[in-house]
Amino acid sequence: MPILDSHTIEFFSRSPEQTRRIGMRLGSAINAGDVICLQGNLGAGKTTFVQGLAQGWGSQDSVSSPTFILVNLYRRANGDQIFHLDTYRLESIPEAEELDLDAMLAEGALIIEWPERLGNLIPAERLWINLEHGAEEHRQMRFNANGGRYDELLDGIRQSMFGGT
């Protein structure tokens, strides 16, 4: 696992199960107000990653890609929420503004697929994860933290997966 700088790590997943497990490790540390951006082409593993993330977080709801409805909501027994957005079908920034990301962040964590379509509506402080196809079921994942909270999340992932830096 190359550590590119203190704010970035790269990881190579060799299977959907491994991608899900990485998501579970992150999910176990997610709090209300967190913003997780998932960038990658169709089939890059975003939904698989979110399935693990929601499971690690403790979601009672099953995960599917929200491509056709834009937002899925996942809940825990204690009432905590995660909003899972797929902005692939958004036509414009004004259409994106109607989603009211601030209201969602006031109530839970936010996971955004295709975040590049939201432009500057995405908070500057966030964890940005880029997923790319490798050979067969392999995926390259690059985690980039923007802000102190996300450096903490990255450190937690680094320690849980690799036992330190």
List the main descriptive attributes of the protein structure presented here.
165 residues, alpha/beta, Rossmann fold, eight-stranded mixed beta sheet, 5 helices, 8 strands, 28% strand, globular
Give an overview of the whole structure.
- The termini are close together.
- The protein is globular.
- The longest helix has 15 residues, at about 150-160.
- By secondary structure, the protein is α/β, with parallel strands linked by helices.
- It has helices at about 15-25, 45-55, 95, 100-105, 150-160, and strands at about 5, 10-15, 35-40, 70-75, 80-85, 110-115, 125-135, 140-145.
- It has a single domain (about 15-160), classed as Rossmann fold (3-Layer(aba) Sandwich).
- It is about 30% helix and about 30% strand.
- The chain has five helices and eight strands; from the N terminus they run ββαβαββααβββα.
How would you summarize the topology of this molecule?
Blueprint: E1 3-5, E2 8-13, H1 16-27, E3 35-39, H2 46-57, E4 71-75, E5 81-86, H3 93-97, H4 101-107, E6 109-113, E7 126-133, E8 139-146, H5 148-162
Parallel strand pairs: 3-6, 3-7, 5-6
Antiparallel strand pairs: 1-2, 2-8, 4-5, 7-8
Helix pairs in contact: 1-2
Q: Helical percent range?
A: 25-40%
Q: Please identify the top-level CATH class.
A: Alpha Beta
CATH architecture: 3-Layer(aba) Sandwich
CATH topology: Rossmann fold
Succession of helices and strands: EEHEHEEHHEEEH
CATH superfamily: P-loop containing nucleotide triphosphate hydrolases
Mean pLDDT: 88
Q: Per the principal axes of the C-alpha atoms, what is the gross shape?
A: globular
> How many distinct folded domains?
1
Distance between the termini: 10 Å
Instruction: Give a short account of the largest sheet.
Output: 8 strands, mixed
Total beta strands: 8
Strand content: 25-35%
The number of helices is 5
The side-by-side strand order for the widest beta sheet comes to 1-2-8-7-3-6-5-4
Which regions contain 5 or more consecutive residues with pLDDT less than 50?
none
Q: What's the Cα radius of gyration?
A: 15 Å
